[in-house]
TrEMBL record:
Residues 238-298 form the Peptidase M15C domain. It comes from the Bacteria. It comes from Luteimonas salinilitoris. This is M15 family metallopeptidase. Signal peptide: none annotated. Coiled coil: none annotated. Residues 1-28 are annotated as: Disordered.
Length: 331
């Protein structure tokens, strides 16, 4: 009897251990975020830092979901730090968490540059000019709150003291310093989508910039000749009229290096950039089988990637407006 009782208890415990546990809502949401960010390793590392935090672990399900939603909106190391600070404050309301604001860094926006010192924005004379948080929100004295992510040309560096070292949580350079997206020869719809791509990339900590926009048919022919009939390396496989750049419907985006100069790193998060572009209804050159072009994005609703040449006569007869009208994306 006693042995049967022990055996029955053991069987029940074993069955309990073997029964899959239903994931909580926050666990489900965490996995969804991980799936979205599969091709952004730094963002995943930031997420690991958030969910592995002791204070985060003590939050209830609703609080964890709130933290995860904030991270999903702006998935980078600065946001993760801010949410860890929020968790500490939620558990101990009197806590003065340093993770809520950057220890150091800088912000350049609207033509003005501010130094950051423990969440304070200091002007060129070192005088307090506002505040800034690791969530990217900032408020200049006498003005409404803003976000560093709302201006793709803001230069922002959020730094945090970790032990004896100060590390960058976020470092973004201007995404269109040369005003390429202001080119009147670009269709407004590709501009709107490119700005959205850059905005999302910046939220994910990807420091990117526009490096090419509209090209005339003649310029395209000169580029095509390079490495073939003129000196230099081959840089394009499209003749004049065969590239969507020639119709103001393509731009090229690269990364910024640590100095804010264009860079095309082999180990850059190109795949995640491509996913963001596709989500905006754009075609990404990195998906091309024959001649992949990772910086390139283009917009041509109703036309295949290789059909640009079919619009050359329309362009010669009526210019860009005629092309855009034919495609149903005229102004």
């Amino acid at each position: 009897m006693s042995l049967d009782g022990i055996s029955g208890t053991s069987d029940l415990q074993a069955a309990t251990l073997d029964t899959p546990q239903t994931p909580t809502a926050d666990q489900v949401r965490e996995q969804e975020i991980r799936t979205t960010l599969t091709n952004n390793p730094p963002a995943l590392e930031a997420l690991d830092g958030l969910v592995g935090d002791d204070n985060y672990a003590q939050l209830d399900e609703a609080q964890k979901l709130q933290a995860l939603e904030a991270f999903a909106a702006t998935p980078n190391a600065a946001t993760a730090a801010h949410q860890r600070g929020q968790a500490a404050v939620a558990l101990n309301p009197g806590t003065d968490s340093s993770l809520l604001a950057p220890d150091a860094g800088m912000l350049t926006i609207g033509g003005q540059t501010y130094a950051i010192e423990h969440g304070q924005l200091l002007d060129a004379q070192g005088q307090p000019a506002g505040t800034i948080g690791n969530d990217g929100s900032f408020q200049l004295t006498g003005q409404e709150a803003q976000s560093v992510y709302d201006d793709i040309n803001a230069r922002v560096q959020l730094r945090e003291q970790v032990g004896n070292e100060t590390v960058d949580l976020l470092s973004l350079h201007p995404a269109d310093p040369n005003g390429r997206l202001d080119n009147a020869n670009l269709n407004p719809q590709i501009v709107e989508r490119a700005e959205a791509v850059l905005g999302q990339a910046r939220r994910e900590g990807l420091d990117m910039r526009v490096v090419s926009d509209f090209r005339s048919v003649e310029e395209q022919d000169r580029l095509y000749a390079q490495g073939r009939t003129t000196p230099g390396e081959i840089v394009t496989n499209a003749r004049g009229g065969s590239s969507w750049h020639n119709y103001g419907l393509a731009v090229d985006i690269a990364f910024n290096d640590v100095r804010g100069q264009p860079a095309w790193p082999e180990d850059g998060n190109w795949t995640r950039y491509g996913e963001i572009a596709v989500d905006q209804g754009l075609e990404w050159g990195g998906n091309w089988q024959r001649f992949p072009d990772r910086p390139h994005i283009e917009f041509h609703p109703g036309f295949g990637a290789g059909e640009a040449r079919n619009l050359l006569n329309t362009y010669r007869e009526g210019g860009l407006d005629a092309v855009w009208q034919r495609m149903g994306i005229g102004q």
